[in-house]
């Protein structure tokens, strides 16, 4: 499977219609994060094949995205879960 036809690989996030909406790429990040994964490596493979970026870049973008209030409005369950996981990891350090 290749990167979505509507956006080139590792392209800058093109804003979606309306200044208060997430970009297509940001929505794709959240959608990928919502999915269940059957085993090790499946998520990383999907990141490369579907988004056309490395897993490292994916997590960089995702960590920035969960701080964005637009992402919280778009998908509060996923964003709050990711924030809890991040905060728990920080607490263990």
Mean pLDDT: 85
The number of distinct β-strands equals 0
Which percent range describes the beta-strand content?
under 5%
Unreliable stretches (pLDDT < 50, length at least 5) are: 1-8
Measured on Cα atoms, how large is the radius of gyration? 13 Å
* End-to-end Cα distance: 38 Å
Class inferred from helices and paired strands: mainly alpha
Helix content: 55-70%
Number of helices: 5
Major sheet size, sense and barrel closure = none
Shape: globular
Give the SSE order as H and E letters.
Answer: HHHHH
Protein name: DUF3263 domain-containing protein
Organism: Streptomyces rubiginosohelvolus
Task: Note the topology.
Layout: H1 24-34, H2 42-51, H3 55-65, H4 69-74, H5 76-92
Helix pairs in contact: 1-2
Region (Disordered): 1-24
Pfam families: DUF3263 (PF11662)
InterPro entries: DUF3263
Describe the structure.
- The longest helix is centred in the C-terminal third of the chain and has 17 residues.
- Helices cover 59% and strands 0% of the residues.
- The radius of gyration is 13 Å and the shape is globular.
- The N terminus is likely disordered.
- The N and C termini lie far apart (38 Å).
- It is mainly α.
């Amino acid at each position: 499977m290749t990167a979505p036809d509507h956006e080139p690989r590792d392209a800058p996030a093109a804003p979606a219609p309306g200044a208060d909406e997430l970009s297509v790429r940001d929505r794709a990040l959240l959608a990928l994060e919502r999915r269940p994964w059957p085993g090790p490596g499946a998520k990383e493979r999907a990141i490369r094949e579907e988004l056309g970026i490395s897993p490292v870049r994916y997590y960089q973008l995702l960590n920035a995205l969960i701080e964005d209030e637009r992402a919280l409005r778009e998908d509060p369950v996923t964003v709050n879960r990711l924030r809890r996981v991040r905060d728990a990891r920080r607490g263990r350090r």
